[in-house]
Amino acid sequence: MSAKTSETHNPKAASPEAGDDASNRIKDPKDWTTGGEPMTGAQASYLKTLSEQAKDEDAFDPDLDKAEASQRIDALRKATGKA
Fold it and tell me: Region 47-59: what's the mean pLDDT?
């Protein structure tokens, strides 16, 4: 690979010219390969905080998976003006 190529090519950036303009799009949580795993500790903590701020105790469910927790967090962020 030439020096010029390595300076200009950024594999993290989308490159519409190369046809990979979707490379950096955020995936829908339902499409995550690990979405069915239990939510992370960080998700649980943030979800608990947001549910308290929204005064919606039912919004926190310790049995949510990663994808469900992410979707619920997004909804609560909008409801509390944190989005």
Answer: 93
Residue 79, φ and ψ in degrees, nearest 5: -65, -30
Number of H helices, E strands in the chain: 3, 0
Which residues form the domain of 77? 38-83
Whether the CB-CB separation of 50 and 77 falls below 8 Å is answered with: yes
- For 32-51, the pLDDT digits (tens) are 676 678 999 999 999 999 99
Q: CA 11, CA 23: separation in Å to the nearest integer? A: 9
Domain total in the chain? 1
- How far from 4 is each of 8, 11, 25, 50, 71, CA to CA, in Å? 6, 14, 27, 48, 42
Residue 3: inside a domain, yes or no?
Answer: no
